[in-house]
Specification:
With 177 residues, this protein is an alpha+beta fold. It has one domain: Peptide Deformylase. Helix content is 19%, strand content 33%. Strand 4 and strand 5 form a beta hairpin. It is globular and about 45 Å long. The two termini are 20 Å apart. The protein binds nickel (II) ion (NI). The site of nickel (II) ion has 6 residues, from helix 2.
Amino acid sequence: MAIRDVLKMGDPRLLAVARPVTDFDTPELQALLSDMHDTMRALNGAGLAAPQIGVDLQVVMFEVNGNPRYPEVESVPFTVLINPRLTPLSDEQEMGWEGCLSVPGMRGQVPRYTALRYQGVDPAGQPIDRTVSGFHARVVQHEVDHLLGILYPMRIVDLRHFGFTDTLFPGQNLQDD
Ligand code: NI
């Protein structure tokens, strides 16, 4: 178990397409998940993808704890999602602010599908199949993008809505994903 360094935008490993996991219930996968969890918690992240710690595998995790000061941010249960597949439920998208542990100290407005189904497997290889909307859907899209070599600034439509967190949202303690 260890807190790992998170790669920052500019590192070519963040631009690679990750490989699917083929072996489940292995000590190597458990060690990876443990390191990812420790790292996400230590940095107060809302999510983390394996490529962000330099591991070329289709593994993401996320968790959002509701904060009574910001009721618009809904809770998302802790989830480990492996080999994910996303299916939007419609073409409808909405804009929302995102941050990323690989782009520290910044936030940008990104369009995401409003509602989607996500499928994949958990660390034991058991299927996950959920239909979600809103912030939960946004977090999943952000994390799965990491497995495709896409960082959220690459999806910003209007760069006027991209900037430093402490300037855009002074006094708020916002999470990165
Ligand atoms: Ni991110």
